Amino acid sequence: MADSKAIDVVDLDFGYAKLHGLDPVPVLQGVNLTLARGSRCLLIGANGAGKSTLLQILAGKRLTRSNARVLGNEVFFNTPQGVTYLGTEWATNPVVRSDLEVSHFLDSVGGYRYKERRDKLLDILDVDLSWHMHQVSDGERRRVQIVSGLMAPWDLLLLDEVTVDLDVLVRSRLLDWLAEETTTRGATVLYATHIFDGLDQWPTHLCHLQLGSTLPPSPMPWPLPASLAADLLPEEVLTRMDDPNRRGSRLLEVALHWLVVDRRERVDREIAESGREKRGAQEANISSEAFYRKYDYSH
Q1: pTM for the whole structure
Q2: Is the pLDDT at 165 greater than 60, yes or no?
């Protein structure tokens, strides 16, 4: 019997090794995330919070001996079939920027084996098989990546910001299809994004990753039950969520609040560790005005 858990991460720690035998730099600490098959979970956190690292670990791309399992198997030493990872680094590969026709590229990665799913994705993502990869826009190249990555059936999909280049229509059609995959096949999606409008009805769960750690409960159901929302969110955020004239979706209001809290926590840590905030304009050594004047060659 298949494991009912698509993702089962308990107290995951991870750090990048430093040279000369020094201690590793911690990136993830005490990460917890358990998702049942069929879930659609948004991974929310600021830039640098560790979202990409967590997705890469779950895809079996980084060695860790912490307790992390996907589809019932260890993520690195026994990575199961059926795990698909799509990240932004694909677009920097020189091969996918060469004079390569899309039809030939898709055949080279097995498109002929999955004709029905391939053709469905070609329609959803509005891809022209006669495109040449070196001539298309970043958004069109991203569409080809998604077709190539999703045409083989998958059980767990790990998405790292790959929809950022898509136009609103194509993104909406893709997300509708992903939701259909989770309901009809019991597949699971963990999706890191900073674009929240239009997503209110899409996720079944949220996961808040702050400075490398998940904040409990992880994951949390979406929409948030009233009692949980009252515990997690201040009154002004709850009021904005119910305001029909709010600036965006209910989900956007939650994400904005979390990011404000995350920034405040980061600044407090920096001040505690070094006595100052590290980001932004600095008065130490040279002011920003003097710096730019130094490199002003107009006079």
Answers
A1: 0.90
A2: yes
